[in-house]
Specification:
By secondary structure, this protein is mainly alpha-helical. The protein is built from eleven helices and two strands, in the order H-E-E-H-H-H-H-H-H-H-H-H-H. It has one domain: Hypothetical protein af1432, CATH 1.10.3210. The protein has a two-stranded antiparallel sheet. Helix 3 packs across helix 11 and helix 4 runs antiparallel to helix 11. The protein is globular. The termini are far apart. The N terminus is likely disordered.
């Protein structure tokens, strides 16, 4: 191929996963989503750009488990499908990473569009609707904010007053949620995230 022809080739918009899948970021297919890729990726993506205390990163996989636990504290009558949707709330980040909110604001709608397409494909892969209900989306937002407050104060060096301005003042965490604030090894969180997904899928099948 000549230098001229390669210069005009379309930019690559897909990522090859360790499972062998080739995921198109512009038109993601539910058929190209694999749990092993999601768990592997999220366990290696650091929250807060890695600016957290501790030997281990605080991964998006661990954050996702924390948000599910916090949401369950807030609304204990959740179905397995609703809990699954909450656990997957940041799943697109296995492809696009965890961009901090200030940078998302700079990028604008382009990021949101790519994220929304990936989220729809992921949810469909797991047998959920492409988008959550309005009530579940509101609960996810509340639980995500509560988790972010505690992460900010315990792990990311925020003063409580500063974290409260950005994330609100949540209630005290339950023991199950507290346990998920201690950063764990990558392999541990990869396994726990995947096992929790599979347990919720099994529970949905039994209903």
């Amino acid at each position: 191929m000549s230098r001229q022809s390669s210069a005009h080739a379309p930019a690559r918009a897909w990522q090859r996963m360790l499972s062998g899948r080739r995921l198109d970021l512009l038109d993601p297919s539910p058929l190209d989503i694999e749990l092993e890729d999601i768990a592997h990726g999220l366990a290696r993506v650091a929250r807060w750009n890695g600016q957290t205390h501790g030997v281990h990163i605080f991964s998006v996989a661990q954050h996702s488990l924390l948000v599910e636990a916090v949401a369950e504290d807030m609304a204990q009558a959740l179905t397995p499908g609703e809990r699954l949707g909450i656990l997957l709330h940041d799943a697109p980040e296995y492809v696009i990473g965890d961009m901090i909110s200030p940078f998302k604001a700079v990028i604008g709608d382009t990021y949101k569009q790519v994220e929304a397409r990936l989220m729809g494909a992921i949810r469909l892969h797991f047998g959920l609707s492409a988008t959550p209900s309005r009530a579940l989306a509101a609960l996810m937002k509340r639980a995500d904010g509560a988790a972010a407050f505690h992460e900010a104060v315990r792990l990311a060096g925020f003063a409580e007053e500063e974290a409260e301005r950005f994330f609100g003042k949540p209630r005290t965490l339950s023991p199950a949620s507290e346990e998920l604030l201690a950063p764990q090894p990558i392999e541990t969180m990869q396994q726990r995230f995947a096992q929790r997904i599979m347990a919720l899928q099994d529970a949905r099948g039994r209903r």
